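Researcher: Good morning. I'm working through a list of sequences from a screen, and I'd like to move beyond sequence-only analysis. For each chain I'm collecting a predicted structure so we can compare shapes side by side. This is the next one on the list. No need for commentary yet; just the structure.
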Amino acid sequence: MKVLSLILGGGKGTRLYPLTKERSKPAVPFAGKYRIVDIPISNCINSGFEQIYILTQFNSASLNMHISNSYNFDRFSRGFVEILAAEQTFEHSSWYEGTADAVRKNFIHFKTQKPTHYIILSGDQLFKMDLEKYMKQHVDSGADITIATTKVSRREATEFGIMRIDENNKIVDFIEKPAADVDLSDWRITENVQLNSHGEKCEYLASMGIYIFNADAMEKALDNNYTDFGKEVIPEQLKKSKVNAYIYDGYWSDIGTIQSYYEEAINLTTDSPKVDFYNEIAPIYTHARNLPTTKIMNTTLTEVNTAEGCIIKDSKIKSSVIGIRSVIRENCELEGVLLMGADYYENEEQIAENKANKIPCVGIGKNCKIKKAIIDKNARIGDNCSIGMNPANLKDGNYDNYSISDGIIVINKNACLPDGTVI
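Model: Good morning. Structure tokens for this chain:
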């Protein structure tokens, strides 16, 4: 058996703007030191699937750099992680028009590997799954296609493709994002029903956007002009192929919006996060950096995750994630802040130049108070700034150096906020 893993990088990532202004969605930093794409890649590697392609087309330079710096298999391994960006060929001259179209246009690269199976994952989801177990069920069932599913409530079902299965987990019906008034009483599952955080019964099976295809089934399924797996390919294959469901009971979340991104990252600071990043057997891999330890001086930290190479002085920080090379100067108060950090340190000459030009240094200046905010990389926040301290005054929208989405302030990458800024 030979498995190729295909990670779909998604489109422009407009729901994650401005974090996707200068980078693709999979390349967005996450949890202090990672990128979102590290999660599906790590799931593949931990499951023994080490031949991985990432399909993307928007703002791919940052993603390319991260992949080349992070995933280098030794010469005795057949493993690789490679990016396949949209390209013009004699056969295809257009951009990827959807998830299925992206796979179809890259068959020329896949077929040289002679795979027996494809596993397709999304580049913007938070989960830890034993994909080897998933593959075993697929092979043992004799299915042509297996769709990973998660349990959702009736209210949540309006946001997903919902499956109805028989006693052998064969999918017998599918409906895309059913409206709240559609009768789904015959679609309920009865075994191992769970409750979500709202106390609602999770009785319906929703597609996770994670698929396993036999290689020949994939080629037949894409021998057409369909562009999307969920909306077109899967419903059509239910009529032609044996399509099964794999029921996943672990935690899974789509982190495609600013709100979901923020909530999932902050959750990692709690005593019992929904996804375990501290498992040595199944770690989350990323770029290994030669950074010094974080230096913390006279500071109170409460439920805080800090990455390498930070310098934090005389401050109070609560429920926050502090990214690599972050500098937080004296007498700051941060609560519910995702600080992505910096790509570099400023030396003494650069700091003197900043002072002469009356520009804040990279990081957070003195006497700042910041609440419920995402601060992108290399941002410069001056002294005596107040950000998010008056939530009633915040209005969603895009502004000069920042955006506000669902009451969450996002300071743009490389933004410069002068002393005394109030948001």
